[in-house]
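Chapter review: from sequence to fold.
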Amino acid sequence: MPVDKPTRASSHFRLAAGLAMVAGVFLSGYPYRFCMTQSPKNPLHGVTLEAILNALVSQYGWEGLAQHIDIRCFKSDPSVKSSLTFLRKTPWAREKVEALYLRSQKG
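The token string follows.
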């Protein structure tokens, strides 16, 4: 059976993978999807948005959450699913929810 010659693209991919491993970055997919090593300085690392929202709802309730963060999805017919959809599409609202979660974890 003939052996395929390595292509230029595959050798570049192997080179990128090797450099990524040396730099402490792990190659997690093709092409060029990098996953950084665990960051101890980020308190939200590994915490999903759903877990954050569930923790806040259990601590404050929907009414209390709506008082802290003035967002309509917390006020009118709130649900975890609709709130997650809104927060994933709206960076400013997600930042407010994450900030409230961090304050609630410190205190």
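Two observations follow directly from the output. The two ends are 67 Å apart (CA to CA). Confidence is low (pLDDT under 50) at residues 19-35.
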